[in-house]
Automatic annotation (TrEMBL), chains A, B:
Key word DNA-binding present: yes
Gene3D superfamilies, alphabetized: Tetracycline Repressor, domain 2 (1.10.357.10)
Positions of the HTH tetR-type domain: 5-65
Protein name as annotated: TetR family transcriptional regulator
Domain of life of the source: Bacteria
DNA-binding region in chain numbering: 28-47
One Pfam assignment: TetR_N
Gene that encodes it: psrA
UniProt key word Transport: no
Keywords of the record: DNA-binding
InterPro entries given in the database record: DNA-bd_HTH_TetR-type_CS (IPR023772), Homeodomain-like_sf (IPR009057), HTH-type_TetR-like_transc_reg (IPR050109), HTH_TetR (IPR001647), PsrA_TetR_C (IPR041586), Tet_transcr_reg_TetR-rel_C_sf (IPR036271)
Native source species: Shewanella colwelliana (Alteromonas colwelliana)
Length: 212, 212
DNA sequence: GTTTAATTTAAACGCATGTTTAAATCAGAG
DNA sequence: CTCTGATTTAAACATGCGTTTAAATTAAAC
């Protein structure tokens, strides 16, 4: 194949689709390069290793999403004391903006995040927290302030429950939307799923702590 | 190594621990057989294949848990119209009973379920639904009856959100309890985590559907 | 004790993986 | 055109995987 300056992009595009669909370790470099119509060795030439390719795929989305999400949050807090629903909902626009960057960008990004948290051998978790930890902390702080009746330790657990919901839902979003279409004739796109999950999460995070 | 009639059990014990910790496809038969101190080929001799070993590992827990959970549910519905909280709470006793069968049995079982749910290449989903589908349907039906204001399609999604929460929480329960102990001086066992998550789940599942 | 079936063992098979190599090809500068 | 550095290419490498094989060993029946 002739020299082509977009080899890196072709690899990233093919990789992100396959990673989102089947997970990282279940996707071989040979499958990626055959879909991208590039040579097998070009992955190692351009990215060094499979791990670095995974990070590059995620970074392409995180570099767009994280600053946008932070901006939305700043804007939201400037005008009012936002509710939990508003805080979660402030993520919707930055998420949907990813569809302008790439077709199915929102779904791909969320699925990649889910795969990353589930499969994480540590290198991804480290990569995300060291590169985007500041943005994450801002978000956690805003959530805590919006539900002051929840003690910090309880909030810690509930935010991780929330993370679990999001991650699992997105990792299996394709299968679930298929089942929903077959069983209930409900045809959901990724935005519909996002808008379904937000009230569920907000209710759980804010529910009063029972002593019992 | 001498002939030993408990080879099957040694394999199951080693396999369930490793499967729960690292997932199915990330756990090789060579790792299992070395931890179990049995010959590599004995897995194929006793179980036929890796897939059948996975099913056998899960069946050992499901055969205990599912009937017990069904019994609890029948008992609960006999005396009253149970609330969502009561229905979820009815699972606690069957779950904790698994600790009598094996040390850390509850945690292992929940982690295995989580791994099976994400990694599922179909054979596990098929195995669970064909062998334990009746029990699952009873539970789903009870949940739906306790929240009649939630349409079936919405309930489908919320139950999967719930599954995601449980599965992710249990998969990372070790790390989370450690962090909670360090940051908040909270010392939780698996039962404490289960009792924290139930109100969160019940609130999310039952929250009224907003039209917006 | 001998025979028979079940089990364990070491070795190999076939295949897929990520990575590396060295030659071939390309694009741009002089 | 010629040279140079970047890129692409085909091939091989080393490793790990699930599985199979055939011989060795064990336990039980007679």
């Amino acid at each position: 194949m002739a020299n082509r300056s977009d080899t890196k992009t072709r690899i990233l595009d093919a990789a992100e689709k396959l990673f989102a669909e089947r997970g990282f370790s279940e996707t071989s470099l040979r499958l990626i390069t055959s879909k991208a119509e590039v040579n097998l060795a070009s992955v190692n030439y351009h990215f060094g290793s499979k791990k670095e390719l995974i990070r590059a795929v995620l970074a392409r989305y995180l570099d767009r999403f994280m600053p946008a999400a932070s901006d939305e949050l700043v804007q939201l807090k400037a005008s009012s004391e936002p509710s939990l629903n508003e805080i979660f909902s402030s993520l919707v626009k930055p998420l949907l903006e990813l569809n302008k960057f790439k077709a199915e960008g929102t779904r791909t990004f969320l699925q990649l995040l889910g795969r990353g948290y589930i499969e994480s051998q540590g290198h991804l978790r480290w990569f995300i927290t060291t590169h985007y930890g500041t943005h994450l902390n801002e978000f956690v702080k805003a959530v805590a302030e919006s539900a002051p009746h929840i003690p910090p330790a309880e909030m810690f657990w509930r935010l991780h429950f929330t993370l679990g919901t999001v991650v699992f839902t997105m990792a299996s979003a394709d299968a679930l939307t298929e089942i929903a279409a077959a069983d209930f004739n409900e045809h959901n796109d990724i935005e519909a799923v996002i808008r379904k999950v937000i009230p569920y999460l907000a209710a759980g995070v804010a529910v009063p702590v029972t002593s019992q």
